[in-house]
Automatic annotation (TrEMBL), chain A:
Gene Ontology cellular component terms for the protein in this record: aminoacyl-tRNA synthetase multienzyme complex; cytoplasm; cytosol; nucleolus; nucleoplasm; nucleus
Localization annotation: Cytoplasm; Nucleus
Protein role: Positive modulator of ATM response to DNA damage.
Entry keyword annotation includes Acetylation: yes
Top-level taxon: Eukaryota
Pfam entry (one): Arc1p_N_like
Organism for this UniProt entry: Monodelphis domestica (Gray short-tailed opossum)
Keywords per UniProt: Acetylation, Coiled coil, Cytoplasm, Nucleus, Protein biosynthesis
Domain GST C-terminal: 51-174
GO biological process: cellular response to leukemia inhibitory factor; negative regulation of cell population proliferation; positive regulation of apoptotic signaling pathway; positive regulation of cellular senescence; positive regulation of DNA damage response, signal transduction by p53 class mediator; translation
Claim: Cell cycle is one of the keywords in the record: no
UniProt-listed PANTHER family: EUKARYOTIC TRANSLATION ELONGATION FACTOR 1 EPSILON-1 (PTHR44490)
Name of the molecule in the record: Eukaryotic translation elongation factor 1 epsilon-1
Record text on subunit structure and interactions: Part of a multisubunit complex that groups tRNA ligases for Arg (RARS1), Asp (DARS1), Gln (QARS1), Ile (IARS1), Leu (LARS1), Lys (KARS1), Met (MARS1) the bifunctional ligase for Glu and Pro (EPRS1) and the auxiliary subunits AIMP1/p43, AIMP2/p38 and EEF1E1/p18. Can interact simultaneously with MARS1 and EPRS1. Forms a linear complex that contains MARS1, EEF1E1, EPRS1 and AIMP2 that is at the core of the multisubunit complex. Interacts with ATM and ATR.
């Protein structure tokens, strides 16, 4: 199964949706497609994810105020445009640097509330974070703190490997 | 607040919106919400339009900053526009900003709107930024701008027309409309980039463009300069990378199909078709000679653009016409359509005369020599012409003169005195291709005498600025001579009527439509059809005895005369528009002659000619990201491909795999190796070979009994779906896309074998052994089906598989639309052996060096310098001379080094040729006569 479809299945379980949906993948980038019962199909990871959240009656995960809603969608867009597809080393480093700086004063991506943005960025970043060295994890300290927090959030990690972050700093001089 | 509104007498329905807007108003005043913009950023348009739509425009604090300003502290790269909220949060995504304005009004987004916004960010933006960059920064026009975004535009158009709603997400306007409109406006405001056939897109775009918030946004962002207002901003941005061409499953039209989950009926139908077996196959057409149209049948006449005789064709020429047409001809025969495929060499013209002088032969001898070269190349590539003729025949003269007389007697020709360029030094009238100068339309410096390579417009040589004789670089003088003109303006109305009837529902490629439309939009002009030459079709008119027809009047008539040389009943094909479907294949530069000039001649001649029904034009194939160039020894030419040791089927496969179907593509050696090793060797070859090997090894070469499980039935249904799509695509001549279906089926097959592991089961219980038999039987049947589907693409490999599997000839000759069991239990197959060979890195690197790919950048650079130096005004420019002197020195040391290394002779010769060319240019730039090479050496 394509990676995106797998991720959506994880999300379904996390949301407590019982009936597993069937996904197909479209094109070279394997964009997920959901065939809904009562309407046309839905295409795109962020679109389907938001749809599932509504289906599970957990709208608060999409944000509560206008501002929070816009911020959640902004990070979902960031996920599908910046995190997916761009896999050269420099791009990834830039992305982690930006996120690290952003998360400096935040618990979650919207600030103080856990949302779909945290879920999809966690899934999207997992493959990069597992490959980081301890030194890099300390360099992107705020990302590491956020990631470690999210992976311990009940039900989110499932079969994905748990990434180890060491509490005592190993590399004191890195910034 | 609501009460206040109602008291002021507004309509009830508007109450809520107003109240929300009032809230918004308060928000904006209370907080320090600030929008940061920079001049000319494309994102300004949707953001301001959305603000206007949500009634926030007047209240928004806007700061204009420089494009380099990092407004968002945590983003390394500057991003604008940005909205800073009073909470300190930043919205740096254009659609998130728009969304926020809408949310403040209480307007939420549904799934469909979200889907469009996600599509805009992931699919539209990457291609749109390329198109805008090409248009605004690089000053390109036409296809260069349109082709990157065409698929995306078609996707929007189809979605709108399929749902028949006026807006993207339904009956009323949504955020998606504003965001997409804002993104597309700079491009689509120029009608040239909003093709007429996208009617739904057009009407959607116009509906939005007239709305007040949109108009206001346009005014303040584009400032009446159109897309050029974005120039300063876009110039500072990195050049966007063209996203990879996507396979067909990503095509908008196939949305439903790729999302397809199999229904019970589809599975049942696939099983029924399978069980019907060979009985269901269509009867095979008996072979005929000559092939003639038959009433009541589908009669398909296929032509490929006539290659010019004295150029050895390169790979780009081959994929552009003869190979593409060959695939379609082979497919058409597999469908049992009554098919005739013709081509031939185009032999008349100045270039032939000159070549003859050079080689000390007569023009006819030159044509004979090169006609044979062409014939051999196409034979090696396995092109299945029914007839490959030539234009220097009595039939050509007869038919051309007949059309001419008919046009003359109907008043579509007139005489006029023409001012012509004559080179006094060479003492001859200069044919168009021997004049070069500055294009009068776009200012391109190396425009040819008949057409500008940059803007594509046709030029009368005399209109060129700063004309030069290409042979001696002398400035030619203007002399007058009498000529005949085809009165195209008189025929314009008939042409438009015919196009109106023909284009609707036909399979003309979008670029062919675009080019034709742009010709008509500019208005047709009379065209001179005679030339002061000897080597051509004589003009049968008093006072024109020493003139011949110009090739672009009579070359397209070559198709008719070649048919006449094939059969004396040629008129059954060419004067039979009711029964014949004419497919013409060519590269895009040939479109006007086939869509405008020849149809006008034929319509004017009033002799019921068969006119093109489907005009299939390709874009260009580049060589390793540059151009093929015979003079620079760069690229692979038809006669060289044979000496690479790579079989012709592999060349065919790769050229078809990268066929420049909707945009230019590149030939790359590394890619050729990768595609051979991954798609052919590991995917297709591996599957077919394994399927056959299992039959031989485990079942003594005899196809085993099969009992289909539900899994097998689903597989059959999947294969059937791919087969159907293959047919749909090839019927529309989407050759490259259909090839993907073949590869998908073998991927299904590999997976099927991998999951079912027949090599393990054969050692198991009775039931296991039976299962191994079923899996092997189904797999070998898929291999048989694939061999037929591959036939248009790789005819030799196809025959090899069919021999290995001992597929009966009647089965090989027809491709069904369903997947019947082609090899029933008990069928004995032959000896199975591997189909493809691995290409190794060393081998490919060697070829790359041999064909000049490595030196490409160097020579392009030199070319740029040289061409500047060629302009007469700069003859004495010391800087140019210095550049050339440096280039000569540099090239000289390249040659010395190669000689010192005792490098390959051909390689040394190529470098020496370059050196000599450079020296010539230097001499020209210095205004010296050419020294003999030896004298130069001593200097």
């Amino acid at each position: 199964m394509a990676a995106a479809a797998e991720e959506l299945t994880l999300l379904e379980k996390l949301l407590g949706l019982r009936r597993g949906n069937k996904y197909s993948a479209q094109g070279e980038r394997q964009i997920p497609v959901l065939q809904t019962n009562n309407g046309p199909s839905l295409t795109g990871l962020a679109t389907i994810a938001a749809h599932l959240v509504k289906q599970a009656n957990k709208e608060h995960l999409l944000g509560s105020t206008a501002e929070e809603k816009a911020v959640v969608q902004q990070w979902l867009e960031y996920r599908v445009t910046r995190i997916d597809g761009h896999s050269n080393k420099d791009e990834i480093r830039n992305m982690l640097k930006d996120l690290n700086s952003y998360l400096e004063d935040k618990v979650y991506l919207t600030g103080n509330n856990f949302t779909l943005a945290d879920i999809l960025l966690y899934y999207g970043l997992h493959r990069f974070i597992v490959d980081l060295t301890f030194q890099e994890k300390e360099k992107y300290l705020n990302v590491s703190r956020w990631f470690s927090h999210i992976q311990h959030y009940p039900g989110i990690r499932q079969h994905l490997s748990s990434v180890v972050f060491i509490k005592n700093r190993l590399y004191t001089n890195t910034h | 607040m609501q009460r206040g509104d109602r008291l002021s007498g507004s309509a009830e329905a508007e109450g809520e919106g107003r109240a929300n807007r009032f809230l918004l108003h308060q928000r904006l005043r209370g907080g320090g919400m600030r929008l940061f913009v920079t001049e000319g950023a494309p994102g300004n348009l949707p953001v301001l339009a959305a603000a206007g739509r949500a009634g926030a425009r007047g209240e928004l604090l806007i700061s204009t900053v420089s494009p380099e300003e990092r407004v968002v502290p945590f983003l390394t790269r500057p991003k604008l526009p940005v909205l800073k909220l009073d909470s300190g949060h930043y919205l740096f995504s254009t659609s998130a900003i728009c969304r926020y304005f809408f949310l403040l009004c209480g307007w939420e987004q549904d799934d469909l709107t979200n889907q469009w916004l996600e599509w805009e960010a992931t699919e539209l933006q990457p291609v749109l930024s390329v198109a805008l960059y090409n248009l605004v920064v690089q000053g390109k026009k036409g296809e260069d701008v349109l082709s990157p975004v065409r698929r995306a535009l078609i996707h929007i158009d189809h979605s709108l027309s399929r749902r028949s709603c006026p807006f993207l997400a339904g009956d009323s306007e949504s955020l998606a409309d504003i965001v997409l409109w804002g993104a597309l406006y700079p491009l689509l405001q120029d009608p040239a980039y909003l093709p007429d056939e996208l009617a739904a897109l057009q009407s959607w775009f116009q509906t939005l463009s007239v709305q007040e918030p949109c108009q206001q946004a346009v005014e303040s962002v584009l400032k009446k300069q159109g897309a050029l207002a974005l120039r300063t901003y876009l110039q500072k941005q990195p050049q966007p990378i063209v996203p990879l061409e996507r396979p067909v499953s990503n095509e908008p039209e196939e949305d439903e199909l790729s999302a397809h989950t199999l229904s019970e009926e589809e599975i049942a139908m696939a099983v029924t078709a399978w069980e019907e077996g060979l009985e269901a196959l269509p009867p095979v057409r008996p072979w005929q000679n000559p092939v003639l149209p038959v009433a009541g049948e589908r009669n398909v006449l296929i032509t490929s653009a006539l290659p010019y005789v004295n150029n050895v064709p390169h790979l780009g020429n081959i994929i552009g016409c003869v190979l593409s047409a060959d695939v379609f001809a082979r497919y058409s025969r597999l469908r049992q359509w009554n098919t005739l495929y013709l081509c031939g060499t185009d032999e008349y013209g100045t270039a032939t005369e000159t070549k003859a002088m050079e080689e000390g032969l007569t023009p006819q001898q030159i044509c004979d020599k090169y006609h044979a070269i062409h014939t051999n190349i196409y034979r090696w590539f396995n092109i299945s012409f029914d007839f490959f003729g030539r234009t220097t025949t009595p039939h050509q003269t007869k038919i051309t003169q007949d059309i001419f007389q008919r046009l003359l007697s109907r008043g579509f020709l007139f005489k006029d005195t023409v001012e012509q360029l004559r080179c006094e030094r060479c003492s001859r009238f200069l044919a168009d291709r021997f004049v070069e100068g500055v294009c009068p339309f776009c200012g391109y410096e190396e425009a040819r005498g008949d057409q500008c390579d940059k803007c594509g417009k046709l030029i009368n040589a005399i209109e060129l600025k700063k004309p030069q004789c290409k042979i001696c670089r002398e400035s030619p003088v203007v002399k007058s001579s009498q000529h005949l003109f085809l009165d195209l303006p008189k025929l314009e109305k008939r042409l438009e009527e015919w196009l109106g009837r023909t284009l609707a529902g036909s399979d003309w490629t979008p670029n062919a439509r675009f080019i034709t439309r742009s010709w008509l939009r500019d208005g047709l002009k009379p065209r001179c059809i005679t030339r002061d030459l000897k080597w051509g079709t004589p003009v049968p008119l008093e006072g024109f005895q020493d003139k011949v027809f110009y090739v672009w009047f009579d070359a397209t008539i070559g198709y008719l005369s070649i048919t006449a040389n094939y059969t004396d009943q040629w008129e059954k094909w060419w004067k039979n528009p009711e029964q014949v479907e004419l497919y013409q294949f060519m590269a895009k530069d040939n479109v006007p002659f086939h869509s405008v000039v020849f149809p006008c001649s034929a319509l004017g001649a009033e002799d019921n000619y068969t006119l093109v029904s489907h005009l299939i034009a390709t874009e260009y194939l580049n060589y390793e990201d540059g151009k093929f160039s015979k003079s620079r020894g760069v690229g692979v030419f038809g006669d060289m491909a044979q000496n690479t040791g790579i079989p012709s089927d592999i060349w065919r496969f790769y050229l078809l795999f990268v066929r420049p179907e909707s945009q230019d593509s590149s030939f790359s050696w590394t890619d050729l190796m990768l595609k051979n090793n991954s798609e052919l060797l590991n995917n297709l070859g591996n599957f077919v070979n394994r399927a056959g090997m299992f039959v031989c090894k485990f079942f003594g070469g005899c196809v085993p009994k099969m009992t289909l499980t539900p899994d097998d039935q689903r597989l059959l249904a999947h294969v059937t779906l791919e087969l159907r799509q293959y047919h749909q695509l090839l019927e529309k001549v989407r050759i490259r896309d259909a090839l993907r279906c073949v590869l998908t089926i073998s991927r299904h097959g590999n997976q099927y074998i991998q999951v079912n592991e027949p090599w393990k089961r054969i050692k198991g219980s009775e039931a296991d052994r039976h299962r191994a038999g079923t899996v092997t039987g189904v797999a070998v049947n898929m291999a048989a089906l694939l061999s037929i589907m591959m036939q248009p693409y790789m005819p030799t490999v196809s025959t090899t598989i069919q021999t290995q599997l001992q597929l009966p000839p009647a089965v090989c000759a027809a491709l069904p639309t369903n997947f019947p069991c082609l090899l029933p239990a008990g069928h004995q197959i032959g000896i199975v052996s591997p189909l493809f060979q691995k290409l190794e890195n060393d081998q490919i690197e060697g070829l790359r060096k041999r064909f000049g790919g490595g030196q490409l950048e160097d020579s392009l650079e030199l070319k740029a310098k040289v061409s500047k130096a060629e302009a007469p005004a700069e003859l004495a420019d010391p800087e140019q001379i210095k550049l050339l002197t440096d280039a000569v020195t540099k090239q000289g040391s390249v040659v010395r080094e190669l000689k010192a290394q005792k490098a390959d002779k051909a390689q040394v010769a190529a470098e020496v040729a370059k050196l000599l060319e450079l020296k010539q240019h230097l001499a020209l730039a210095e205004g010296k006569p050419l020294d003999p090479p030896k004298g130069k050496k001593k200097k």
